[in-house]
Structures are given as structure tokens and as C-alpha cells.
Design a protein that fits this description.
About 10% of the residues lie in helices and about 45% in strands. The chain is mainly β and about 220 residues long. The structure holds 2-acetamido-2-deoxy-beta-D-glucopyranose (6 copies). The site of one 2-acetamido-2-deoxy-beta-D-glucopyranose has 4 residues, from loops.
């Protein structure tokens, strides 16, 4: 009698822990309530080391964008002091409302210290959100961990910028992983590809992307 009560208690505690955990990482459709913005080639602005042809740092094949860059590559424009990058900057620019970037990403083991997607622009600073891969972890800028074990597999990224509410949210594989205040409104846009972090960057950096979409809340 006493023993079965004991087991019941353990079961209940386990159930509560399970439900709590399931709630925290519940699977949702991050695009619910949003409308898709139709993109074509005119929405893509390519950035790559200024002295290197695009086809030596980027290839689009079978629906997959593959971007790569080396730590000793030149910046995207002559005279810029920024780290090397091969990125697509997406139009439209936005200044208000609630916007969302979605894509399937693949980062090979070995790429580290690379921003793979960002919200450029802010009232304070140059950027609102940089999602970087360090040693298979995704971090918000340099330190805050968003998710782990991301090397060598496709994962879905949904990056929501609620300009009106001043908030940024990150979903990985349809699970909410991160939420933070933004840096105020500005001239804003999404970018994806590879962009070297200030420190701790691998010599070779690569990301692949497919099914890239932009949405806006109606
Ligand atoms: C591509 O998109 C732009 C901006 O949305 C639009 O003005 C243009 O007509 C589109 N071009 C084609 C070929 O669909
Ligand atoms: C092309 O892409 C499709 C859809 O992602 C995939 O199933 C297929 O294996 C790819 N083919 C090659 C040759 O990579
Ligand atoms: C987007 O913003 C950039 C400034 O960063 C500007 O040069 C460009 O003309 C803008 N494009 C559109 C279509 O508004
Ligand atoms: C990445 O590669 C390193 C070196 O080859 C290896 O030790 C490590 O286990 C790999 N990590 C993953 C997640 O595959
Ligand atoms: C913002 O961008 C400018 C131009 O690229 C650069 O000079 C400046 O250092 C950047 N500021 C920060 C905080 O990164
Ligand atoms: C960079 O590497 C150093 C030495 O391993 C470490 O102390 C530091 O935390 C790393 N920085 C980031 C942003 O990972």
C-alpha cells in the first residue's frame, strides 16, 4: 500500500516534469498568422569578398544556396573594416510591423564563428540579431546559446522580428528557443549566408540554405 503510493507519487512528479518540458519546447507553426512575401531574383543582393568572383564563393544548385568564405578573404567592399562574408541580403527593407525569415540550414562540422542569418539595422548599433554557429551551437551574437548539436544536419530556422513590439524570437525546428528585446526600429532587412564573427573563427566557413522565405504578419 505504502509502496504503491510511493510509485504513484514518482509517476505524478515525472508526468509534471514531462508536461512542463513538453510545454517549454512545444512544436508550433511559427508562420501562423503571417502571409508569405513572394520573392524572386530581384529580392536578392549578393555580397562576397570584393576581389573574388561570386562563383568562387557561392553556388545555387538543385534549390540549395551554398555559401563559403575564408578567414583571410577580403571584406565585401574596398575600405570596409568588416570581416569576410558571402551573404544574400534580402529585400524588402522594413521599418515597422512583424516580419519573419524562414529557411532550412546546413552547417558542416568545422565551420565556427560564423553568422549564418541576421537582422541588419537597429536604432542602436548596426544589427538587431546575429545567429552564429560556434562548435555546432547556435548563439545569439557571441554568448547566449540558442540550440546545440547542429552540425551536419538540416535544421529549420524561423527568425521573427516584431518591430512594433520590440522583440526578436528564434525557432529551431519549430520549437521556440530564444526571445529577446530588439535594439529599436531602423532600416531593417534579413541576410543569410556566412559572415565571420570578430573572434574565434574557423579558416573555412560554410552554410547551405534552402526553402528561404519571408513572411509578414497580416
Ligand atoms: C519580382 O519581384 C519584384 C518585387 O516584388 C516585382 O516588382 C517584379 O515584378 C517581380 N519580377 C518578376 C519577374 O516576377
Ligand atoms: C535535389 O533536391 C531534392 C529536394 O531537396 C532532393 O530530394 C534531391 O536528393 C536533390 N538531388 C541532388 C542530386 O542533390
Ligand atoms: C533598402 O535600403 C538600402 C539602404 O541600406 C537602400 O540603399 C535601398 O535603396 C533600399 N531598397 C529599397 C528597395 O527600398
Ligand atoms: C566534428 O569533427 C571533429 C574533428 O573531426 C570531431 O572530433 C567531432 O566529433 C565532430 N563533431 C560532430 C558533431 O560530428
Ligand atoms: C557599424 O558599421 C560601421 C560601418 O561598417 C562600422 O564602422 C562600425 O564599427 C560598426 N559598429 C559596430 C558597433 O559594430
Ligand atoms: C574564444 O576562445 C577563447 C579561448 O578558447 C574563449 O575563452 C572565448 O570564450 C571564446 N569566445 C567565444 C565568443 O566563443
Amino acid at each position: 500500500m505504502k509502496a504503491s503510493y510511493h510509485y504513484m507519487l514518482i509517476f505524478l512528479v515525472a508526468l509534471i516534469l514531462f508536461l512542463n518540458d513538453a510545454h517549454m519546447v512545444s512544436v508550433v507553426d511559427p508562420t501562423y498568422g503571417f502571409v508569405q512575401i513572394v520573392l524572386n531574383e530581384s529580392n536578392f543582393v549578393y555580397q562576397k569578398p570584393y576581389d573574388t568572383p561570386l562563383d568562387q564563393r557561392y553556388i545555387y544548385k538543385n534549390g540549395t544556396h551554398r555559401f563559403w568564405v575564408y578567414a583571410d578573404d577580403k571584406p565585401f567592399s574596398l575600405g570596409s573594416n568588416t570581416q569576410p562574408r558571402t551573404e544574400i541580403r534580402l529585400l524588402p527593407n522594413y521599418t515597422s510591423g512583424v516580419w519573419q525569415f524562414e529557411g532550412l540550414a546546413f552547417v558542416p562540422n568545422g565551420t565556427s564563428g560564423a553568422t549564418i542569418v541576421q537582422v541588419h539595422g537597429a536604432a542602436h548599433g548596426n544589427t538587431t540579431a546575429l545567429l552564429r554557429i560556434y562548435n555546432g551551437e547556435m548563439r545569439f551574437y557571441s554568448t547566449q546559446v540558442i540550440d546545440v548539436d547542429l552540425y551536419d544536419r538540416w535544421f529549420k530556422v524561423n527568425l521573427i522580428h516584431d518591430v512594433d513590439g520590440g522583440q526578436v524570437m528564434v525557432f529551431i525546428d519549430n520549437k521556440e528557443r530564444f526571445k529577446i528585446h530588439d535594439q529599436g526600429p531602423g532600416l531593417l532587412y534579413f541576410k543569410f549566408g556566412v559572415y565571420g564573427a570578430p573572434t574565434n573563427i574557423s579558416y573555412y566557413m560554410e552554410s547551405r540554405w534552402k526553402d528561404v522565405k519571408i513572411y509578414k504578419r497580416c
